[in-house]
């Protein structure tokens, strides 16, 4: 903005603005009728088809307010637009990212916003977006599976053409905010599908965050909106407050916009009282400002809807009020009304960063008064700076509250100030005072007249470095503290006051106190009953009380305490039962208490913090406690946020039964941590595998267990409800595991409903035992049992090699979703069991299984094949497959796999199985092959255009075939087999098999064949040598049937 013309205005014009600012209707709607507002709207709404908004002044302030005002003016004055496309551009770290074609580029964001307005975001986009967001969350932003590229490509090649087609004949308004990096206008048309505005009488309004972005982006003929008049900044401030109220209403979603406009107006005026024209105050924090808003009664006690369910169990006045205050403060920041820390302007050119800065510089709201006018009933909020006194009156806003001063702000007043030395005379006359701010003043003792302020809600002594005690300064009074009579006090801030002694009377009649900050005091202990009357205290802050060695037992009486911060003390333990009694505690911060050894009192034998079963604790921070060895927060069901640091001696950590959603990697990487328990932590859906350098020796995590489950002390056990938990278990983690850094032994169970899964497994085990007992007692029904129950429960025959659970085992049970997250984990797994899965199509798609030795697959009816590549499974020894209704092949006929370690292969009840492996598959170690109840199997080995007429099974010892009625031959080309170690062949129910394999090479002994007599009698032999390779061991003739019996019922 050009140099201000404000000071040149005639007095009557200046006074007219002052009068207008005392009219509530003017703040709400009256400003819209002013000449300045009308001229500004016309300036924003009319002009070239493309306009650039660079805000006000060098800081590009008020861009959001100007954009909103411009959109309203354009829609009102330039006719109807078919579409209004509003884009709030998300900031990026670099110009390259913003100007590229990626997921976060400005082009992409514009195209998506346009598509959303036009209803063109299709199902594919929504699916890709959901997948991207999931991957981004579960991998901590390290991996997205190329979904960002897929999204950008889909938007560019599918959605953008539809945008072009639709907007080519329709009038639209594009309003872009927060444009951080330059963008070529031609790119908006070409890459985003937004036709140049001249084509269809449309309009572009581009709001940038700097003049640089505008200068590098504008085209010839584009216009920039220039604000160079002070009255325009004034009306922008009015409008910004209006938009702030809308923002507050949208966040809190209670009451009305008008209600929040009034609240925001009061908060803004109070801030103007603090940051008046003459104030050169020490930086005020947002918490201090919100405290003063609350003490004035401006902020309502209201639960924000989004957090109502989580906080409804605790009635915390302080937390609710502060939530509302934070929303208001953020709205002021967003719309350039107030920025903390506040910086007063030295000249007119600087006074455009915020509305508060502008109004303070020009003295439009806060008015100067004399000391004699302090007691005027109309002077509500009064602030001092040096010899200057200012006040803000809201008689026009709340005429019923004009009882006298409600706030006296002496922040940073020097010892030359005329009021500091006369407080004893002034304060008794300010009986309605609610806020007294003496922060950062050179007072050496408290004025005794403070005790007269019976309506005082807030007393701030922050930063009063010369104040050595809280007693009275008057020699005519007793040594009792003037604080002893402040029965309405709600907020007491003595942060930075170096007092070394406290008396009991300081805490007298403090039943309304909700916030107490005694940070940086020099006390060594509190009076024993100090907290006895503070029944409403919610926040207790003791930061850097370096001499403090003991806390009083009366702390246990703080039943309403919700936030406790103890930092830099010498305390060793907390009073007995303090955490048992403070059941409303939500936030606990313990930092740099280097002597701390326990929370349970001096009787503790071990250096531990044990805070179990606390019902309302939400956040816990423990930093700099080098003596703590054991830490347990078990059963703190609302605990969501934790932070630990510099716990050099920590050995055991129990977070079972909490609600934490993220576990910081530095906790897990603690050098001495040996035991980590996370039972019943269902909210912990992701894990920082990619940031680990070690794991505790005992690591037990269970999403569902209540903590009653037994767990081993020798192996890591993880029971999770979804594979996404392992999405960050990528290549670097796999390399570390293979290098022996951690995770050398583990048991992992992945099941969506682990509790129900276990219950069903227990029932199946019971039924399994009953059926085995039935089998022993009623052997006549063996075939009935095998046929009827194989589809429900598979019982391995004693002849089958059982699955051996290795030191790295994974169970996958009843999964219905894609298993993307398990790829890395399964690459270091040595044994795996997959049961009742309905999502896997090809088993080898899950992982390369580079370390897999033992594998079991049951009831995975969607699975079509097992192995479809020749890269992994080289270490596989034992494969057990049962009840896969959809299985067509074990190994695809189009590849030749290398099963160099496979010793045992069991296939049972796979009714659609067509073949097992192709001819070229390498099986040098295969010892046993079991195929049972595979009714569609016609051949075991299938040719794959090979010219080799021999297949090698050098280690084969036994083959068992049962109920494979359509099996015609072992090899579809009747190739010869080399199997020098083959000893046994068990066959039942294979009535279509007419020829056994022709054997080649040296065979030390004949293959013993156990099968039906009628089947054996129908075999065809190529030669006597062929026949002499087999030695039939057939049942006795009277026990055999001449042919297969057709079973029509299980009853006989």
TrEMBL record:
Keyword Cytoplasm appears in the UniProt entry: no
Matches recorded under InterPro entries: Leu-rich_rpt_typical-subtyp (IPR003591), LRR_dom_sf (IPR032675), Plant_NBS-LRR (IPR050905)
Keywords: Leucine-rich repeat, Repeat
Protein name: Uncharacterized protein
Native organism: Triticum turgidum subsp. durum
